[in-house]
Amino acid sequence: MKILLMGHPNVGKSVFFNRLTGANVTESNYPGTTVDFTKGYMKIGGEDAELIDVPGTFSLDPKDKAEEVAVAMLHENKDVKVICVIDASKIERGVYLALEILEEGYPMVIALNMWDAAVDKNIRIDINNLQRILGVTVVPTVAISGEGIKELTLRLKEAKPVEIDDIIKNTGGLT
Amino acid sequence: MKLTIDQRWDIIDKIAKQTVTFGEYKHTLKDAIGELTIKPLTGVPIAIAVMYAFWSIFGSFAGTLFTDGFMVKLFDGYFLPWMQDIFPGAGGWLYYIIVGDPLADNCFEAFGMLTSGLFVAIGVVLPAIFIFYLMLALLEDMGYMPRLAVLIDTVLHKIGLHGYAIVPTILSLGCNVPGVTATRILETRKQRFIMMTLLAIFIPCGAQIGIMEEVIPDTMGWVLLYLIIGYFIFGYILNKIVPGKSPEFLIDVPPYRKPMLSNLTKKVWGRIAGFFKVAIPFVLLGCGIVNVLYLAGFIDWVGNVLSPVFVLWFGVPEATAGPLIAAFLRKDLAVAQLSVIEMTPYQMISAVVLVSIYFPCVATFAMMIKEGAKELLGALAVLFAVVFLYGGLIHLIGILMGVA
Lengths: 175, 404
Fold this sequence. Notes:
The structure holds two protein chains of two kinds.
Chain A: E1 2-7, H1 13-21, E2 38-44, E3 47-53, H2 65-76, E4 81-87, H3 91-103, E5 108-113, H4 115-120, E6 123-125, H5 127-134, E7 137-140, H6 149-154, H7 164-171
Parallel strand pairs in A: 1-3, 1-4, 4-5, 5-7
Antiparallel strand pairs in A: 2-3
Chain B: H1 5-19, E1 20-22, H2 29-36, H3 40-86, H4 93-98, H5 107-110, H6 113-142, H7 145-157, H8 166-174, H9 176-182, H10 189-202, H11 206-215, H12 220-241, H13 261-295, H14 298-314, H15 321-329, H16 331-338, H17 345-357, H18 362-371, H19 373-401
Helix pairs in contact in B: 3-6, 6-11, 6-13, 8-9, 9-18, 10-12, 10-19, 11-16, 12-17, 13-15, 15-16, 16-17, 17-19, 18-19
């Protein structure tokens, strides 16, 4: 099994990567820390899985070379599952990237990372409703402290492609 | 099914309305500090203070405390005499390569692989890169870098870049290699080319700064000034002549976060481990190669052939040929070697600037090939022009000031 960590810059993908694989890629608090991909290995339910950390990207329409690497990794690996990491305080734009990836038919689970910061800012997210609308497993996480990481790995098997039509229906149709 | 951009935002709007509620948000102290450090009126003085603190901690920790206070005493007082004593065959070629000058009373003059090589690597550069990466990791993990990027944005637009070019620039101050890779965060080929060229030419690495701090503490300010001015002059020119666009940048300034000790240790340790694995062998090897080239008479020959260029155009002694060859392997080694050549303070400034700008070290060179061979060719063309023009200009300034 191959798993790709996708998400905006500076949402904590590399922190996830290090936590999940025990690797040592650089983690910093600024966008653009990761500019190349790194592969690592982990066990999920006794099965070997390859996890790939890629540079952050705002969309699948790359605007610099680091983003090109991310998009190319997605497109070169048609059989991957995607962990889409989203900043819980900024879910709108995170969901934008998630939609783009879902449109291309990739199976996905979403990690709503930096959940603690969202709570501090008094932002409340109805996880169940978000899961229902998107049809995708959503796990709140705090990657640096490790909260939610276990649940995320356990629920990775729930990753499946979804029909965009269903999402549209669940939101009540396009305007 | 593919959506249009508008459809996507339409869906997201609806999703957000149904799933997210925003409570009242209170301004915290962290936000207040965040704003103070990014608004120009308060941010610029704070940035200057931060850089100054960085610089003085670097100098006092690496130079004064570790190297002068401890390493110099250890190496010059015990290690060098011991090596000179126990190594057989004083005056022979093997002795010359490994230990160097049998009469030298300090590790800069000896210039053997295991005397100067080890001293430069462990006694001078190791403390320098340790403190550099520790402070860099602190700034990175706190989230200060993007704020610096915003503050310096206007200035960097003048040289065809934008604020975020501060990231490859600062990374290069540690080591040019990750600096070259970090140019990937710039949007256009023009920006990447300008950034790569400027950093390869004008940004001295941590190892080089560490050794300058040790051997030319009084004049290194001039060296750095010449490099900074060169960075902007040639950046300005490149911006005018290189075709392409230099777009604005949009950046998410992350909130300040408390750096985690575990991550700091991991990052610094990673750097130190890399230094032991890659840099130390290179310093020792470089020292050995240079010694062999001296023994073979090659360096004196190059010095003789290029003597008119060195003496008349650049105003430095022809003995500078040796360090310039060493500089291709390691810049720190080259500066260490320069420090024992007889010359005036101004010649020393010119020579150290030349060592910095004349060619990227082999590790940087290899990374530039990987990141874009075409860009590399262009960068080299610029480099030769810059070395010739800027080197001559520095000499001219020296003549006009009456110090060259």
